[in-house]
């Protein structure tokens, strides 16, 4: 498994169109070739909507993560927005971050 916590940094040194083409033609195809799962993070509000649409269309799944502050309390939330070839729960779920930084779903 490979995790890229912020794939958005690649656009810092490239124009967006070239960066999207690189990710779609080089980055995404590497997972199946290596028989590996890749998780790539993108920052919301950094790219054009066209870039998000192209990358999301090529992905097997989209997981949204957000942080909210409600009544002085920080809430970390996660949901599966889309996932190919499987059923899933698309509701927002609260995450619990333990003292050792292990993350679990808050029940």
What do these coordinates show?
- The protein has about 110 residues and is of the alpha+beta class.
- It has 2 domains: about 1-60, no CATH class; about 60-105, no CATH class.
- The chain has 2 helices and 6 strands.
- Strands 3-4-5-6 form a 4-stranded antiparallel sheet, with no helix packed on it.
- Strand 5 and strand 6 form a beta hairpin.
- The longest helix has 18 residues, at about 15-35.
Structure characteristics:
single chain; 107 residues; alpha+beta; 2 domains; two-stranded parallel ribbon; 2 helices; 6 strands; globular
List the helices and strands and how they pair.
Blueprint: E1 2-4, H1 16-33, E2 38-40, H2 49-58, E3 61-70, E4 73-83, E5 93-97, E6 103-105
Parallel strand pairs: 1-2
Antiparallel strand pairs: 3-4, 4-5, 5-6
Helix pairs in contact: 1-2
Question: How does the helix and strand content classify structurally?
Answer: alpha+beta
Overall, the morphology is globular
Look at the structure and give the mean pLDDT.
91
> Terminal Cα separation, in Å?
27 Å
Q: Note the main sheet.
A: 4 strands, antiparallel
- The string of secondary-structure elements, in order, is EHEHEEEE
Low-confidence stretches: none
User: Based on the structure, what is the oligomeric state of the protein chains?
Assistant: single chain
